[in-house]
Amino acid sequence: MTQKIAAGVTNLKLKFAGEDALLFKGVSLAFRPGEHALLLGPSGCGKSTLLQVLSGLIPGSIEVPMIADEVIVPERWGYVFQDPDTQFCMPYVDEELAFVLENLQVPREDMPARIERHLRQVGLSLPDSHVPIQTLSQGMKQRLAIASALATEPEVLFLDEPTALLDEEGTEQVWQTIRSLADGMTLIVVEHKIEGIIDLFDRIVVIGPAGEVVADGAAREVISLRKKELDRYGVWYPGIWDDRPSLRRSPLPAPDVPPLLAMERYRGLRGSVVVIEAEQADVYPGDWIGIMGDNGAGKSSLLLAIMRLIKTEGVCEVAGRELKKVEHLAEHAAFVFQNPELQFVTHSVRDEIEYSLAVDGVPLEERRARSADLMDALQLLESADRHPYQLSMGQKRRLSVASAIIRGQRLLLLDEPTFGLDARNTFAMLDLLERLRAEGMAIVMVTHDPRIVERYCTKLWRVREGRLTHAIDVSTPANMAASR
Amino acid sequence: MQLTFPHRRTWLHRVNPVVKLVLFSLWFFAIILIHDFSVMINVAIGSVLLLIWSGHPWKRLLLYASPFLLVFVSSTTGMMFFGSGETPWFKWGIVNITEESFYRGLHLGFRALSMAAVGLLFGLTTRPVDLFYALMQKAKLPPKYAYSFLAAMRMIPILVEEFQTLRHALKIRGMKKQGKLMTIYRTWHRYAIPLLAQSIRRAHRIAVAMEAKRFAGGAKRTYYYIIGFTYRDIAFAALTAVLFAASFAAGIQWPYIADITDVR
Fold first, then answer.
1. CATH architecture of A7-233
2. Collapsing DSSP states into helix, strand and coil, what is residue A170?
3. Whether B2 and A134 lie within 8 Å, measured CB to CB
4. Which residues cross the membrane (chain A) (predicted)?
C-alpha cells in the first residue's frame, strides 16, 4: 500500500520567462499528512516557487511554464506570504477575514463567530475586530495573515518566509502562533531565520543553488551534517553567530579629536509634534552607533532629523558646523534608506555609483576610476552595466551604500541596512561597514538585531517614545548585558 | 498615514450608497438646468445645510471645502470681470463688470458651490467598502472590479509614504544642473519609474494573495455586509425632492433681487 500524500510533485521541470536555464530539472518531493517540513536554500534557488507549485498557485494564478509527471495539490490549503503589507485587500481586520469567508460562500450568519474563532486561534485578542489593519504592528499583521489562511480550514499550511520582514518580537509572536496550530496540521515552510524553531520540524529539505535537492531528512541530522552548505547558502542556522571567525571589536576611538556629529537639545518635528528628542549626544570618527528601540519609537525620525529632512529645533553640528540645508549636509553625511530601490536614480550600477560625483562636476576619468575601485571592493564589478533593479537584494543594499559614500563623506547614516537579508549578505554588509569604520568613518545605524550591536557597534543609543534616552558604551560585553 | 478621520455616523451614512449615487447624479444634472438666480441660491443654501449630517466637525469641513471655495471665487470672478452685459458698472483695463455679468458670475459660483457641497457630502458619508458592496449587490458590479478597487485603495497610503521617501532621497542625492524643461522631465521620470515599479510588484503580490484566499472573479459569493434598501433611502429621496420644490417655489415667489430672474 502506498503512503498517503498531502502534497507532492514528481519530476517537476520549471523555467521562468526570459531565463535560459531551467529552475528545476526534475525535482520530486512528497509530504505526508501531519508532517512539519522546512525548506532551506540560498536565495533564488526556487524554494518559494516550489511552495507555489505545491499549492497550485503555479500555474493556476501565476503563469509559469512547467511540466511534471504528477502534482498532488492538497484539497484545502492556506498560504501565508512574506510581506505583511501586500496580502490584504480590505481596510479592516474583520472585513479581511470576511473576504475569505465570502469567497468560500460561508453564510453571513456564521461569519462573526468564525471571524472571532480564527482571531482567537492566532492569539489576536482584539476587543472589537473592526480595527483598521494599518494600525496593527507588522507581527500582528502576519498573525492576521495566518488567521485568514486558517479561514480556509486548511489541511496543509504553506508559509513563505513569514517572519523575514519582522523584528524579533514579531518573529517570536508568529512562531508562537504557528506552534500552537501545528498539532495535526501539515506545515510546509520556507524560512531562513531558523534559530529556535528547529524542534518544530521533523523534516528538513535543503535545496541547492541549481534547484536540486541537496539533503532531505530528519531536522537535527540535516542541520548538523550540512552546516557548511547552509552557511554557504546564507541560512541563519542555529549557532551561526558563534561560528563567525572573530568578534572584531576595535577599541573606542580616542576622544581628543572633535566630534563628527554633536547634538544638543535637538528635536525633530512632524507638523508641530515633536517625534524625536535628543538631550545631548556626540559621534566621533571611528564610532559605530547602533540605534535600537520599539517600532514607532522614533529611530528613523532621528536619522531624518540629523539629515534635516524633517523640521528641527536645537543644535546639531556636523563636522563642526551647523548646516541647515540638506544639500550642504549631504557633502559631509551619507544617508542610506531602508528600501534601496527608492534611492536609485539611474539605469546602471556604474552610473548609480558615479551619480553624486557627476552632480559635483568631477571629470569623467576620475569618476570612472573611483567607481571601479568601489565596485571592485563590493563585488559589483561584473554587474556594472546592469540596471540596479535587476540586482539581488544583497547587491542592491551594497549598491545603495556605495552610491551614498562615493563623495567621501565621513559620517554614514543607515536605516536598517541588514533588514530582510540572508546571513551571507548580512555578514557581507557588516564586514563592509566595519571596513569603513576602521578607516575612520563614523556610522550611525538603526537596527533591530541586538547581536549586531553586541558584536559590531561601539555605542548603543536607545530610543524610547520619541526620546533618545541612553547612549551606552558597548565596547565591552558587560555593558551590553547591563543595557538590556 | 491615515486616510480616514474619526467622525460621527449620521443617518446619511446609512442611506444605501447606490441611492445616494443616483440621487446626487440627478442633483448634478438638475443644477446645470437651473437658470433662475434666486432658485440657484436657495438650492446652494440647501446643499450646504445638508453638510450638517456629514458627521464631521465644521472646522474640518471648511478645510476639506477650501479647494471648492477657491473654485467658487475663481468661477465667480472669471464670469464677473470679463462677461458681457448691457448695464456697465465698472471698467478698468480689460476688467469690465456689468450688472448682467455680476449676477451671472454669482450664479455660476453658487452652482459650483452646490456641486462641491454635494460631492463632499457623498465622499464624507460613504465608506468605499459600503459603496462597492452596494454596487455588487444592487447594481450587478462584478466582484473582480469591486475588490480590485478596494485593494488599490489600500495601496494609496503606502504610495504616499514612498513618494515622501523618494523626495528625501532626491534631495540628498542632488540634481544635475540642466535646463528648466529638462529638469521637469527628469524629475517626473525619477518619481514615476520607482513608484510604478513598486506599485506593479505590489499589485501582483496582492493579486496572488487574493487568489490564495480563494477569490475567483466571477464565482458566486456570500456577503458580510448586506446593503439593502431602508426607510432612510425613501426619506433621503423625499428630502431631496422637497428641497428642490421648496427652492423653486420660494425662488419664484420671493426673488432675492426683484428684476433678476433668468441670468442667461
1. 3-Layer(aba) Sandwich (3.40)
2. helix
3. yes
4. none
Buried/exposed A223-243: b ≥16 CB within 10 Å, e otherwise: beebbebbbebbbbbbebbee
> Based on the domain organization, do B186 and B74 belong to the same domain?
no
Q: Where are the domains of chain A?
A: 7-233, 261-482
Q: Distance from B9 to chain A by nearest Cα, in Å?
A: 15
Q: Compute the nearest-CA separation of B181 from chain A (Å).
A: 18
Q: Given an 8 Å threshold on Cβ–Cβ distance, is A81 in contact with B212?
A: yes
Residue B221 placed within a domain: no
Residue A97 is placed in which grid cell?
A: 477575514
- pTM over 0.90, yes/no: no
Task: Say if CB A192 and CB A421 are below 8 A apart.
Answer: no
Residue B37 has which C-alpha cell? 438666480
- Condensed to tens digits (0 to 9), the pLDDT of residues A428-442 reads 999 999 999 988 899
Please give the Cα distance from A336 to B150 (Å, whole number). 33
Q: What is the mean pLDDT of residues B170-194?
A: 79
Say whether the ipTM exceeds 0.95.
no
From chain A, pick out residues whose CB is under 8 angstroms from the CB of B170: 345
- Nearest chain B residue to A57 by CA distance is B212
- Distance between CA atoms of A417 and A425, rounded to whole angstroms? 10
- Residues in Cβ contact with A388 at an 8 Å cutoff, skipping those fewer than 6 apart: A340, A341, A344, A346, A347, A348, A349, A352, A396, A399
CB B147 to CB A62 under 8 A?
no
Residue from the list A83, A102, A326 with its beta carbon closest to the beta carbon of B223: A102
Distance CA B51, CA B48 (A): 5
Nearest to B134 by CA among B223, B217, B231, B10: B223
Model confidence pLDDT, tens digit, residues A148-197:
999 999 999 999 999 988 888 899 999 999 999 999 899 999 998 888 89
Cβ contact (<8 Å) for A105 and B166?
no
The answer to whether position B241 is within a domain reads yes
- Which residue of A87, A327, A342 is the best one to mutate when testing the B interface, meaning the one whose CB has the most B CBs within 10 A? A342
Q: Per CATH, is A261-482 categorized as 3.40.605.10?
A: no
Q: Please tell me which of the candidates A134, A152, A309 has its beta carbon nearest to residue B171.
A: A309
Joined grid coordinates for residue B205? 503580490
CA dihedral in degrees (A209, A213, A215, A219; nearest 10)? 100
The phi, psi pair for A417, rounded to 5°, reads -70, -15
Beta-bridged to residue A155, according to DSSP, are none
Specify the pLDDT at position B2: 45
